[in-house]
Amino acid sequence: MNICYYIAMSLDGFIARSDGDISWLSVVEREGEDYGYSAFYKSVDVVLMGRLTYELSLSFPDWPYPGKPAWVWSRRRNLPRGPQVTITDGSPAAVVDNLKKAGVRKAWLVGGGELARDFRQAGLINEYVVSIIPVLLGSGAPMIATDEGLDELSMTSVNTFPSGLVQIRYRVETQGVST
User: Fold this and answer.
1) Which burial class, exposed, middle or buried, applies to 128 when counting CB atoms under 10 A from its CB (0-12, 13-18, 19+)?
2) pTM score, two decimals?
């Protein structure tokens, strides 16, 4: 199963402001440009996210993941349920094993940084697609929460856009290399 951490971040490595705000992403919004998102979304079978990302998603006018089952990691069981949402506190490895058994081929790790850290520590991320937004936030939620180890990545593509957005794809070559 391929797990892709497909994320947008500021040039200084943050995926949200400290208060969870992501309105700064709008600086790259352009009519008719989705930066490959539609094709990527069609390619995934399920979405995986942490509680804070899920709660932010529920605040949007429309559910942003239509037609895709979603797994949300949280110890809180009383979260409101969106369509096709499963709340879990299981380990990423156990959930991924169950998804594999169910025939899932590709999953989108939506965020946030703490869940990405947990997936990375378990050696479950195969690919990173990082869209760098031309802003500096100075602080906020990091792309991956503090972690140890070194993963060696191989760049598979890079695309630049007139808005200043740079999208880089990496394949994970080796995980947890000691330095």
Assistant:
1) buried
2) 0.94
Whole-number Å distance between alpha carbons of 131 and 170: 11
CA-to-CA distance for 126 and 116, rounded, in angstroms? 12
Query: Considering its fold, how many domains does the chain have in total?
Result: 1
Q: What is the CATH number of the domain that holds 57?
A: 3.40.430.10
What is the CB-side half-sphere exposure of residue 138 using CA atoms within 13 A? 0
Asked, for residue 179, whether it belongs to a domain, the answer is no
| pLDDT tens-digit series, residues 3-13 | 999 999 999 99
Expressed as residue numbers, the domain containing 128 is 2-16+33-141
φ, ψ at 52 (rounded to 5°)? -65, -40
